[in-house]
Amino acid sequence: MDMLTCQQLTELVTEYLEGRMSFWRGAQFQLHLGMCRHCRAYIHQMRTTIRTLGSLPQESVPPDLKDELLKRFSGMAPPERK
Amino acid sequence: MTDGGTTVKNGAEPAAASAAVPEVSGSASDLALIAQLRARDAKAFAGLLDRYHGPLLRLALVFVTSRAVAEEIVQETWVGVLDGLDRFEGRSSLKTWIFRILTNRAKTRGVREKRTVPFSAFVDPEGDPEPAVETARFRPDGMWGVAPRRWQDDTPETLLMTAQAVGHLESAIAALPANQRAVLTLRDIDGMDSDEVCNVLEITQTNQRVLLHRARSKLRAMLEEYVERK
């Protein structure tokens, strides 16, 4: 089985994290990771990046808009039954 | 135009006044939520507003550069949700349906205004190959020359405590090509799964993955620079 290079591994990371790898590709990937702490650090950085993005603050709905929409919602007639 | 953002416009097509409610299919949680919304449960609708307003605004900002226009698009989206609620048939998840209303609004805006992202940007993820990591960091045999270091496990928490780091990250996201930014925003910031993202943006799984890969690689590189400069 051919060894993946570190550079190749960096291009396959997303396929790996998405669980989209073929069996053999996955085996090559795991084999490389098992032997290369730099690539383990790389994957760890990638996972940390994803976790950081997932923790970014989201804006909340402005209170006046929320009130306005809720008022509109409550004023809507309930739908007719079939 | 809105004055101060409190007036909700009639952005959507008029709802058929007395159309019968369609049967809804879909996941159990969607079915329960739809039932609550049709019973006019204000808490259920407030929950939707709380959950999706921020993510919708983030997505709108991918399509238009003006924040005011993005806010209007989100507002119109909510009006569209109210107008369409009783006709929703559950062919997609409720979430996908809401986000699709937004992308459709954004496209309509694109016709009227120049300051929008060309939609063709979503079709072609191939283009120039962009390496995930600078080629100069590898030795000629493809192994690491300048190897990455292992970051602290609490990196996200530490980083996001400072406004400066958040600002850096947000600018790096804003600097991505629109198609990469849209995918990264929905997947990694908003936590959608890949099927939902493909449905919202009307792209294939392969395109989605290529765009995600490029976007994540760039953000990792940016963070690496930031973390190691500290």
How would you characterize the overall build of this protein?
The complex is a heterodimer of chains A (82) and B (230). Chain A is built from four helices and no strands. Chain A starts with 5 loop residues before the first helix and ends in a 7-residue tail after the last helix. Chain A is an all-alpha fold and 82 residues long. Chain B has helices at 28-38, 42-63, 67-84, 94-112, 155-160, 163-174, 178-189, 194-201, 205-229. The model of chain B is unreliable at 1-7 and 9-19 (pLDDT under 50). Chain B has two domains: 28-112, Orthogonal Bundle (Rna Polymerase Sigma Factor, Chain: A), CATH 1.10.1740; 119-229, Winged helix-like DNA-binding domain superfamily/Winged helix DNA-binding domain (Arc Repressor Mutant, subunit A, Orthogonal Bundle), CATH 1.10.10.10. In chain B, helix 3 (67-84) packs across helix 4 and helix 4 packs parallel to helix 8. Chains A and B meet through helix 1, helix 3 and helix 4 of A and helix 2, helix 3, helix 5, helix 6 and helix 7 of B.
Helix- and strand-based class of chain B?
Answer: mainly alpha
Determine the number of helices of chain B (DSSP H or I, runs of at least 4 residues).
9
Structural class per helix/strand content of chain A?
mainly alpha
Helix content of chain B: 55-70%
Q: How far from one another are the termini of chain A?
A: 63 Å
String of helices and strands of chain B: HHHHHHHHH
Number of separate domains of chain B: 2
Order of helices and strands of chain A: HHHH
* CATH topology type of the largest domain in chain B: Arc Repressor Mutant, subunit A
For this structure, the quaternary state is heterodimer
Portion in beta strands of chain B: under 5%
Number of strands of chain B: 0
CATH class of the largest domain in chain B: Mainly Alpha
The overall pLDDT of chain A, averaged over residues, is 93
Categorize the overall geometry of chain A.
Answer: elongated
